[in-house]
Structures are given as structure tokens and as C-alpha cells.
Design a protein that fits this description.
Blueprint lengths: L3 E5 L4 H12 L5 E4 L4 H10 L8 E4 L2 E4 L1 H9 L3 H6 L1
Helix pairs in contact: 1-3
Length: 85
Amino acid sequence: MSTITIYTKSTCPYCHAAKDLLRKKGAEYDEISLDGDRAEQMKMAARTGGRSTVPQIFIGDKHIGGCDDLYDLDADGKLDELLAA
């Protein structure tokens, strides 16, 4: 299974929804909380090409995007194959 990294903030409902989907899929993930961590926010922005919203999700080295992007992949039947890679 691919390594999953998700950048989050504790008060973000989209972060909770994305993590819920990943848990339903049985996928383990590394969560990086950006709560009050400006340096980590800057690292995330650099890694995502300037995006500053959360969640930002990576499966392996592939940037998936945010919560809607994750759910769209699932609806298209493509999320399971990415998780299995």
C-alpha cells in the first residue's frame, strides 16, 4: 500500500471527511497538523505548488489535492488502485 500523507487543521470539516474516507478504505496515513505551525504550512505550500488550503493529500509522491479531489477519485473508481499501488 502506498504511503499517504495528509496535511490538516483540527477545526477543518473537510480534513475530517477526508480522513473518514481513508479510514473506511482501511488506509493508514501520516497526518501533519498545521495548527499554529507556520513553518510546516510553508513546507506544505512549497510541496503543493502554492496551495494553502487544507486538507492537502499525497498518495506516494502524487499530489491528490483536497477533500473533493479525494472523493472524486473514489467516485470514479480510481482511489482503490492508487491506494493499492
